[in-house]
Amino acid sequence: MPILEVNDLVYKYPDGTSALNGINFKANKGDMIAILGPNGAGKSTLFLHFNGILKPKEGVVKVKENPISYKNKDLLEVRKTVGIVFQNPDDQLFAPTVAQDIAFGPMNLGLNHDEVAKRVKESLKAVDMEGYDEKPPHHLSGGQKKRVAIAGILAMKPEIIVLDEPTAGLDPLGASQIMRLLYDLNKQGITIIISTHDVDLVPVYANKVYLISNGKIIKNGTPKEIFSDTEAIRNSKLRLPRISHLIEILKREDKLNIDMGYTIGEARTNLLDYMKTNKMKIKE
Ligand SMILES: Nc1ncnc2c1ncn2[C@@H]1O[C@H](COP(=O)(O)OP(=O)(O)OP(=O)(O)O)[C@@H](O)[C@H]1O
Question: Which residues form the ABC transporter domain (predicted)?
Fold first, then answer.
């Protein structure tokens, strides 16, 4: 059963910009989906439709098979189910302290004080930010702000978390830590949808990929299906993961008959297989 579905979605901004031109998208429960596409492709605009912040000009958005009605009561339900973490945490964090910020969402759900306090504590623990309760969010580093923004969404206990470029602006370790956190949340059953330009991380974490360009989905499939379509990758102004690029060069320039790999683990296995097949010496 799709937990989130978009059919033939068309959206124009009030100034007349055509941002989405007939999008079809589907997330099943437990998916970890990466949406890839060049700047201005329509990723953020699509995300704003996932929980009813924007209303389509044409088409339907369904959450747990129910089309969003855009009535206030329905929107509250939708926002309980679908949480969005914006690209810039400064757009999301506004309370004087971290704890107050995280409490804002659950308080709006009408939960009692004890439940709100419990959720704040649990969410801070989940993002590894215990002890930061009383810090003003603007004193935090970029990576810490992202974590707090994610905690604020987790405190609503959503079934789907949508994150607009969660690793943008983070150092490599910070980016890996955020992806690991999302992976763990996904393993706990939360459906995760991210947009990203970081193609190296995609095959490691995502089970499905959508390519978007000029407000249209140009391809969707597994990371392997997407990255083996060099034309689609080129048209989306993307590149192969670095490790796949190396294998491609070894195949093309050095005529090594190695199977393609999209993660370091896969590439390592394929390289070792190649060496074994060709009776090259490997330390056993
Ligand atoms: N508030 C707005 N008013 C008018 N046009 C807008 C508005 N926001 C976005 N757009 C336009 O809509 C199109 C899609 O933009 P969007 O921000 O969804 O792209 P994106 O794929 O998220 O890009 P990026 O990778 O740069 O974040 C672009 O042409 C953009 O200029």
Answer: 4-239
The CB of 42 under 6 Å from ligand 1? The reply is: yes
Q: Do residues 7 and 41 both lie within one domain?
A: yes
* Residue 127 in domain: yes
Q: Is 62 found in the same domain as 75?
A: yes
CA-closest residue to ligand 1 atom 18 = 42
Same domain as 47, residue 132 = yes
**246 and 146, same domain (yes or no):** no
Range of the domain at 33: 2-239
Q: Is 74 found in the same domain as 126?
A: yes
Task: Tell me which residue has its CA closest to atom 25 in ligand 1.
Answer: 39
In this structure, are residues 202 and 34 in contact, taking their beta carbons and an 8 Å threshold? yes
pLDDT tens-digit readout, 40-55: 999 999 999 999 999 9
CB count in 10 Å sphere of residue 16: 6
In this prediction, does ipTM exceed 0.85? yes
Quick count: other Cβ atoms within 10 Å of Cβ 9? 24
Q: Are residues 246 and 206 in the same domain?
A: no
Query: In this structure, is residue 107 part of a structural domain?
Result: yes
**Residue 228 neighbours by CB distance under 10 Å:** 15
Residues 20, 217: contact at Cβ < 8 Å? no
Atom 26 in ligand 1: which residue has the minimum CA distance? Answer: 39
Q: Is residue 284 part of a domain?
A: no
Mutate which of 17, 211, 217 for ligand 1 pocket (most atoms within 8 A of beta carbon) = 17
Atom 2, ligand 1: residue with shortest CA distance: 13
Per-residue model confidence as pLDDT tens digits over 182-212 = 999 999 999 999 999 999 999 999 999 999 9
Task: Report pLDDT digits (tens) over 76-95.
Answer: 999 999 999 998 888 888 89
Which residue, chain included where needed, has tokens 């999008």? 23
Is the CB of residue 17 below 6 angstroms from any atom belonging to ligand 1?
A: yes
